[in-house]
Design a protein that fits this description.
heterodimer; A: 380 residues; 4-stranded parallel beta sheet; elongated; B: 264 residues; 8-stranded mixed beta sheet; 41% helix
Chain lengths: 380, 264
């Protein structure tokens, strides 16, 4: 451990889990964790909802001492029989990597005639994006992605890591988790801004599948603006370019876009692909400079800290995050209101259309109040 | 209650730890002490010369087969009642021998009543303390005295000095330095000086004798096979010293340059 860098003492995402999600995006059918049964359990379980068969060699105390080569070979074969997959991945864990297990030897010995991605990852990397990179590198080696795509992803991930260190969960030695501001008050404020005829930019800058819920913020704000007859005062931006990213990520973009169309939502500016949340800030910068520099407020859902502060300076900022540790850094960036969608991620796995967010639900509730007020006025 | 001696013998690989440990164990058994020897080397050959050249099942070997282990499965009686235990380990280059030692010692402690009755328990530990597992006997609070075995050659001294660094780090006193002679020049003088620099003492000088090899080739200790030999007396003397040793202090390891000039 180097002493010249701050040591971050709150728990953070694991590189093993990052590798698993990446394998999911690569549409790998089976991912075998070579390690203890409980390693990465929560995410392994969630990934099953997303259609990946996650298995474990369940290394035990004997496995730590004697190694688990034979177990791994037989599990690879068994998984091939059980699920008849088109592609498979074998993923390391802390335990198997410390004792020097060779994933490649086991894959060779199992001798399947489908691509098998080997990811010799453990959870001890400072940046969890290391797990993503390792998975992508192995995928490129196995011929599942092009070298160009690998290079593209590497650049995005580097940027994502930088942002996490600058304004994210890796920005401070300790960040206490927070539930953020009360959603009702913030929703009220949104309504007041609209009532005052203020002009607003609604940005969804979401990380991949989390877009299924962050997109709901765009829906809800548009609904309330419609109700108040001020829809022309708002513009929508979203990182849902359907031509960028791994196949699964493009599918998310297609699904969300088709929902937007169905609800009559126009996305005025496309700010990159769904894996480009870390670089979307630059698209936003360009759009604001060209067309929206006089806007009064911005609502940013997803990865709000990836939008550089100078791009939106002078606007009142409302941000919607799913990171309880993201509240303080966002406040420090000058965001007046920060709301947290607790436990968002699990609810965006295994879905293919927009899911209601708590903030969206709160806005809709206020819209109802508004509606009944209007009716009362009318009756009077 | 008598003082129970639980000692570990450290030293460079191949320097004669197992051989010395077997002879100490046999000599102490002859004196009427209850002795146990616990081999922690994955090669599991620490006790072989107390068992007429026979190998015994190892703790990890049985754990690997998921056997429901009883004390009698892992504790064997060798020469003159010496209890012999072998930890065992994985195949070379596979798994983790260090973790193996930790697991095996926990198992032994939970199973064996025999070790409670012993006067002397000798842990025969692999040459280099390469990872946490190899200091488990000490760290888990079993060992209360450590001895270092070396010759007067540079590399064994270097290893011995390194081991002392480890002992100092884990706050374990050194009770003495044993010289297993390789017949090099000024050997006794060099090892005596080394021991002194460490703040310890040379408690035995074991001359190089073919007879030790001859006995081992047949699977015996010198004490058992050649009890009348001069070298058997050397081992007996060493055994007595260990049983009566009261002095021990945290070693003060030498720096590399000092060590180099010592052997020059």
């Amino acid at each position: 451990m180097k002493t010249d860098k701050i040591s971050i003492i709150h728990p953070r995402p694991s590189s093993i889990v990052a590798a698993l999600y990446t394998l999911r995006d690569l549409d790998v059918d089976v991912a075998i964790l070579h390690g203890p049964a409980g390693c990465s359990f929560k995410h392994a379980r969630l990934l099953e909802e997303d259609g990946v068969h996650v298995l474990t060699t369940a290394l035990d105390e004997n496995g730590f001492v004697f190694g688990g080569h034979d177990e791994l070979v037989s599990l690879i074969k068994k998984a091939a029989d059980m699920f008849n997959p088109d592609s498979m991945a074998v993923v390391g864990t802390c335990a198997s990597m410390i004792i020097g297990e060779e994933l490649h030897d086991a894959v060779e010995e199992a001798g399947l005639n489908i691509p098998v991605i080997e990811v010799e990852v453990h959870a001890g990397y400072r940046d969890n994006t290391k797990g993503v990179l390792m998975a992508l590198e192995s995928a490129a080696d196995a011929g599942l992605i092009s070298d160009t795509e690998y290079q593209r992803q590497s650049i995005i991930l580097k940027k994502a890591t930088e942002i996490e260190k600058k304004h994210g969960a890796a920005s401070k030695s300790y960040l206490a988790p927070s539930r953020g501001d009360v959603k009702y008050s913030v929703a009220k404020r949104v309504m007041d801004l609209l009532k005052e005829d203020k002009k607003g930019i609604i940005i969804m800058n979401a990380k991949k599948e989390t877009g299924y819920m962050f997109a709901d913020v765009i829906l809800a704000v548009n609904e309330i603006a419609e109700e108040m007859k001020v829809r022309s005062n708002i513009v929508n931006m979203a990182n849902i370019d359907q031509t960028l990213g791994l196949p699964r990520v493009r599918t998310h973009a297609r699904n969300i876009m088709s929902d937007f169309k169905e609800f009559g939502i126009e996305i005025h500016e496309i700010i990159g692909g769904m894996d480009e949340y870390a670089i979307a800030g630059e698209y936003v910068r360009k759009a604001i400079q060209e067309k929206y520099s006089d806007y009064d407020f911005a609502i940013i859902a997803g990865v709000p800290h990836a939008i550089p502060a100078d791009v939106i300076s002078g606007m009142e900022i409302i941000s919607v995050t799913n990171g309880p540790r993201q509240v303080l850094p966002l406040k420090e960036m000058g965001h007046e209101h920060v709301v947290v969608e607790i436990d968002l991620h699990p609810r965006t796995l295994g879905v293919s259309s927009i899911v209601e967010s708590e903030f969206g639900a709160t806005l809709r509730e206020i819209k109802k109040e508004l509606h009944s007020q209007k009716n009362e006025e009318f009756a009077a | 209650m008598k003082d129970k001696k639980i000692i570990a013998i450290y030293g460079k690989g191949g320097i004669g730890k197992s051989s010395t440990a077997s002879n100490i164990a046999a000599a102490c058994a002859d004196e009427g002490y209850k002795v146990m020897i616990i081999g922690c080397d994955p090669k599991s050959d620490s006790s072989i010369n107390l068992l007429g050249g026979q190998r015994i099942p190892t703790i990890l070997g049985l754990l690997r087969e998921s056997v429901d282990i009883q004390e009698e499965d892992i504790v064997f009686e060798g020469y003159n009642g010496v209890k012999c235990v072998e930890v065992g380990g994985p195949e070379p280059g596979i798994g983790c021998a260090g973790r193996g030692i930790i697991v095996a010692i926990q198992k032994l402690k939970s199973l064996s009543k025999a070790h409670l009755e012993m006067d002397l328990i000798i842990y025969d530990v692999p040459g280099d303390i390469v990872c946490g597992g190899f200091v488990a006997p000490i760290k888990k609070g079993f060992v209360n005295e450590a001895y270092v075995l070396t010759s007067g050659e540079y590399m064994p001294l270097y290893a011995a000095n390194n081991i002392c660094r480890g002992l100092k780090k884990i706050n374990t006193p050194l009770s003495g330095v044993i010289c297993n002679s390789r017949d090099v020049s000024r050997e006794r003088e060099i090892v005596e000086k080394f021991a002194e620099e460490l703040g310890s003492e040379l408690i035995a000088f074991i001359p190089k004798e073919q007879i030790v090899q001859d006995c081992e080739r047949e699977g015996f200790s010198v004490i058992e096979k050649e009890p009348e030999s001069d070298i058997a007396d050397v081992y007996r003397e060493l055994a007595r010293k260990i049983m009566s040793q009261k002095k021990a202090s945290n070693p003060d390891p030498m720096d590399d340059e000092q060590l180099r000039s010592l052997t020059r």
